[in-house]
Structure formats: C-alpha cells, structure tokens
Amino acid sequence: MFDLWVIVCIVPPLWKGGGPERIAAVSIGIAALATKVSVEGFQLSYRTASPVVVLLDIALAAALICLAMKANRIWTMLLASLQMCVVLAHIAKLAITQLDPLAYYVILTKWAYVTAALPAVGAIRHQLRLRSFKVDQSWSPSR
C-alpha cells in the first residue's frame, strides 16, 4: 500500500512542481526504494533498529534539511522536521532497547505517509501561486 502511496504522491511534484518540490519528491522516492530493496527478504520485527534503515533515514533527513535551508517554501521545514522525528525514533530505539516495538513501528511508518504527501501539497500550492502571481520564486535569495 505504501509503495502505491509514494508513487501517487511523487508524480504531481515531478510533473507540476517547482525545484524544491521535485528535489523532495526524488529524495523521498529514492529513500523509499532504497529502504524497500535493503529490507527485501527480511522480516522486520521493529524489536531492533535496522542499521541500513537508520542510515537511509539519516541521509534523507540531511538532504531534506539542506533543501529546507535553501528553498523558499515553508512546507520544506515541516518535511525536514518530520524526518528528524523518524531519526529521533531510531535514536530512542537504539538507546532504549525496551521501547515498545508498536510505538517504534507507528513512528517510522505513519510519518512516512505524511512525508510522502508533502511535496504533492507543495506542488499544488506552487501551481496556485503561479496562477495568482505568474511567478513563484523557488529558492531563497543568497545572502
């Protein structure tokens, strides 16, 4: 189900989004694919943190933080924040081995649906700004 959700959510930004929307969609798509490939054949129990998944989530968080710092979009800050919540969940699981597997599962999987949807929402907002103002600056001016 999540695979279909990711595909549905990354098509609008790739088709009608600005630069930040496209970069976010590609980053999320690559991370989702890499995660799927890395855990293929393994039964994830969420009793322990998978090192590969942790590293992929950290890499995605770093990419989204860099995007949020350069993009002229508010939603990119929310996107980076949500991904940092996932990274913090990994840290909590590594630090507190008694962390309930269900809580760990919910944090990792449910935020992913919102994270995948945000670039699509950003693409819709981008198109609305283009219709209203005829221009939508994608990147913050350099200082």
Overview in brief:
The protein is mainly alpha-helical. It is built from five helices and no strands. It is elongated and about 55 Å long.
Please bin the fraction of helical residues.
over 70%
Determine the number of helices (DSSP H or I, runs of at least 4 residues). 5
Distance between the termini: 43 Å
Mean pLDDT: 93
Q: Structural class of the helix and strand makeup?
A: mainly alpha
Order of helices and strands: HHHHH
Number of strands: 0
Q: DSSP strand (E) fraction?
A: under 5%
Largest sheet: none
Q: Poorly predicted ranges (pLDDT <50, ≥5 residues)?
A: none
Overall body shape: elongated
State Rg.
16 Å
Helix and strand arrangement:
Elements: H1 2-16, H2 19-39, H3 51-70, H4 75-95, H5 101-133
Describe this structure in words.
The chain is mainly alpha-helical and 143 residues long. The protein contains five helices and no strands. It has helices at residues 2-16, 19-39, 51-70, 75-95, 101-133. The chain is elongated, with a radius of gyration of 16 Å.
